[in-house]
Amino acid sequence: MKRRKIKGPPVVVVADFARGFVATALLAAIQKEGGERPRSGRAVLRRAVQGGAALAAGTAVADALRRRRYADALLAAAGGGAGILAAELLLAPVDQSSDTGEPLI
Known about the structure:
Blueprint: H1 10-30, H2 41-66, H3 70-90
Keywords: Membrane, Transmembrane, Transmembrane helix
Transmembrane segments: 73-94
């Protein structure tokens, strides 16, 4: 039985995540919208993680589509969406007025 050789090692996905993370972190830390006060470190981290997940997933989807592996493309898109949602829920701003400290959803 032949083993299938894996094309595109996971290192590529990690590199794509790092590129998206750094690029989005820089944008989130520097850009201000209107009269908005500077973003907190938590908000910058949330956007950076989401940007890294989006770029890594987008690159994986494009690569899978190029190889005509549609199930892999769908799985990569779903994984990217799950990563973005997880970052949104886990790194959401904490409501300072509540006693529970639960993140806002």
